[in-house]
Amino acid sequence: MASSVVIGGPSGAADLQAVLQVAQGQAIALDVATADRIKKESPSPKDFKLESNDILAATKVESSLTSIESRASILCRLISLANGSTKLRLAVLQYFVDLLNSGTQLLLTSATTDAAPLQQIADAAAGAGLTLCDGKSSPLSESLQRQHLSAPGISQQERAMLQSGQWVTLGAAAVTIQTARQLLLCGTAVAALSAEALQIQVKAALEDEYAGKAANDVVGSLSALLKDSPRVNLRKAAPLEAFASIPQCHGAADEALASASTSLKGLLTLPAQAAQAQSSQGNLTWMMLGVASKLLAIAELSVKRMAANTTLPRAKVFANAAAAHQAKMDDSPVLLMQRARAALKRTLSEAAEAEQEPSLAAARAAAVALAAACRALAAEALLASLTLTLAEVSTQAYRKAPKAAKQQAANGAKPKASKKGKEGPSFGLGKGTVLIKSLIDSTASQWDWNPTITPTRAMPDGSSSNASSGEGMSHVLQLAQQLQGSREEEEGQGSVPETMGEAAGSLDRRTVMNLQQALKAVEQALNPLGNKLGPVLADICRLIESNQANRKPKAAKGTRDLGPEQMAIREVAFNTITSVFKRHGAVCIDTPVFELRETLMGKYGEDTKLIYDLADQGGEILSLRYDLTVPFARYVAQHAITNMKRYHIAKVYRRDQPQMTKGRFREFYQCDLDIAGSYPSMVPDSEILKVLVEILSELDIGEFVVKLNHRRLLDAMMDLCGVPASKFRAICSAIDKLDKEPWEEVRREMVDQKGLDSKAADAIGRYVRDDVEPKFQGQPQQILEKLLADPLAQEPAAKEALTELSTLFSLLGHMQGLHHIEFNMSLARGLDYYTGVIYEAVMLKSWNGDPPQVGSVAAGGRYDKLVGMFSSKDVPAVGVSIGIERVFNLLEDKIMAGCKDESGAVCGKIRETDTEVLVTSIGKGMQAKRMEMCAGLWEQGVKAEFGYKAAPTIKDALGYADDNGIPFVVLFGESELASASVKVKDMGQGTEEVVNISKLPYHVAKLVEGLGKRTLVATKRQAPASDQADSAAPEQAGSRQQDASAGQQPAS
Known about the structure:
Layout (H helix, E strand, L loop, with lengths): L4 E3 L8 H8 L4 E3 L1 H10 L25 H17 L6 H12 L3 E2 L8 H11 L4 E4 L2 E4 H7 L9 H7 L4 H32 L4 H5 L5 H13 L15 H4 L1 H24 L2 H8 L3 H25 L13 H6 L6 H21 L5 H41 L1 H10 L22 H9 L29 H14 L2 H5 L17 H17 L7 H18 L13 H20 L3 E2 L5 E3 H4 L21 E3 L4 H10 L5 E10 L13 E10 L6 H17 L2 E9 H11 L6 H8 L7 H11 L4 H11 L8 E2 L1 H9 L7 H19 L6 E4 L12 E10 L9 E7 L14 E7 H14 L10 E3 L6 E5 L5 H13 L4 E2 L8 H10 L4 E5 L1 H5 L2 E6 L4 E6 L3 H10 L7 E3 L5 H6 L22
Helix pairs in contact: 1-3, 1-8, 3-4, 3-8, 8-10, 8-12, 8-14, 8-17, 8-19, 10-12, 10-23, 12-13, 12-14, 14-16, 14-17, 16-17, 17-20, 17-22, 24-27, 24-34, 27-33, 28-33, 29-30, 30-31, 32-33, 35-38
């Protein structure tokens, strides 16, 4: 026997599963400590006065909540009262505990709001109300007498407390949400079974990546359910939309239910007064309407999949409203779904117009939507099972067909040709779907079967089509054949006998009754609150977990692994960038990969939605850093720094839609240089731009331009054009898209989506368009002169900005840094923290002259107010950030092209190591000696390898050195050791010399000093035949011989 659910106290019921268990009949008990507290807080007898007992008891409840919903509502009211100080007597709480434990079913009205049912709960404390007994309503007083219970009566203050809040809504919602969460996996299993019945294409849906964990979890479940199934991907037609939409639909429902569950659990744990205040804000209403919408979407997809079933054309009563009305099947899934949709629409209208939130109506709308989803999934499961049963019988018959064909031939019949060596089609199901089909088939013996005329068909093996083992399976096959129709009907050559006057092709009344009985049995089996579905779902969960363990590992969406080749390129690229930073006197810092969420909020405008939030672990609310600039500003403020020139190379994270081929990732490196402090105007800004030009020039990845603008000039332009100040940032965000979209699209966004006046938009176009005169894009000094002659220059903010820009261009000219700069009025970087100069580096051509695959590779600007957001003192700052991943895409192509000759043949590879010397030997027992020689070389700072194989071969050793660009090889054998010498081979020159072992470290160190800068690409040489005859080299271990992974990050 299950233990009682405890109310109140630290171990009290506060989760929806406990609510559902009690709603289904589990006993409850009041926590002892809670009972003592409530007793102490109870009003004294002199301050307490009962209401009069002349309560007008209701004689009828027109529309009532279900018994489960009523019990859940009373329980939620009890939990809330036990959580805080309510001045309620202990006797009142204990009465409701006893009432629930007695099994008394209190009838509560299903109203729009909680007022009426809460009043009935309060009336019940006074002994008034109605209960349900043996399917009939009876006075509560009679039930209390039978259970030997007595109502405690209540005071006016206790009634006011009992009738406050939305606890009936919460109870009904808890039942719906918890039931629906258990239904979701069942729904996914049924959809997988339908996929097999329809033999549809599922590969694309299961291989796609979706936004959100929930949708991808659904894909994982479908993959596990359909694993090893031979019945999917058989049709060449496009994937069925009603199947392809399952991950998004079921995933969205899962997220909505999880969010609702968390909200309800939060309300249950709050004290009564706090929960009452929070629940009265309308959140419950809209939350449950959202849940209802998601559940109806599941039902609608299920109906669409049933409509796609052409094997059972007469089963359209499940998916076609007209057919359901004709068959007088009022409980058809499609009709129940229509009623649920109408209830949702009605409640949405009430929620928009009513003075009081229709929270209970919203909870009931969700319950009706859940019932529609349950009915639809049960019907879909039944049709899929019937379809698969026909396929299984047909498969078995065709496997026996060759023997029957011989008998036909003996009787003079012409046998049908069969493919040589083929026994006919095979039949099987997925590892998970077979579990759900077995559950459905097991209900057949429970059907209340009405015998009807069933045409007996001759199968290919000569047997009767309705011959089947077991009465239950006979019912399954007969019903499947009744829904399939006769051959004449299928081929349009006739109609079935009209046994009860129905039109041709329609269902006779007995078949409708059989179908209803079958649906009822299947619906009971798939009921999340029943005892049959749970064990099957537990088996499916174990299967899914097992499948996840066996799934092919992959990197998360928007991320990638980097192999030795990419890291070799990346290292050289980082060294190039770092050397420029250091050349300009910058120091390096590091900050945590995550920040307090409040640190990042409000700094990125519309891009704030791209911040990755970390799960709340009961401590600080954290987020992954979006860039390196805001953490730097926090660092400056926290450490009270007044001036600093710092660089920082680290990973940042953005919840963006990745485009891997264009260098857009969710995890990527940024290389930042920032100068903080008060300095003469435009001095730090000019050096930052000079650094940017130097880096892109030294990386040599192609032709580029640095577009430049001024934030205050941009704001002055929008003010002059008539843009309201409140829309400045929103319009900036639209203007910033001009490098990707035509002016017409940008203008439409500004006017239609962001509410800008069309005249203001056209005025902006004069400054930012590149297809009208005068163009405000081009050589800095020329555009500056145009702007100084424009009315915009009379705006105070614009005048100040143009003065700063004049100074900036002068300083850049002195540093020979203007030749890559373009003054461009259409540049409108959208980050909220910029206050002055803004700039963006854009690739014009790739290294080979082709159009670039990436656009912006670096960006930055001045932000004088950002540090002040974290302290009381502003520290002016300016910086630039290089998006290194996009740079790598261009470098990669360039470096990989260097590994091929003019004909396109591979002539080299990227060096994965810095090894300068390979020490190898010939003969056995030389391993220790090789290691000894390497130790001597290492002491001299020489990068050396010795090979792990005990007896290496000459061919493999020289091949390894050649492939990896190792410039020198030390060779020795027994004869060399006997003379205390070794051979040192120069792989580039093809020469070798004999060196005394004692002088080897010093001699090789001098050879290495003459190598100069490391070569990233190792060019293969055609080794002379004498190499193999005169030299010996070790075979390298397989662990060091990695294939070059094609097309990864390059370096300078």
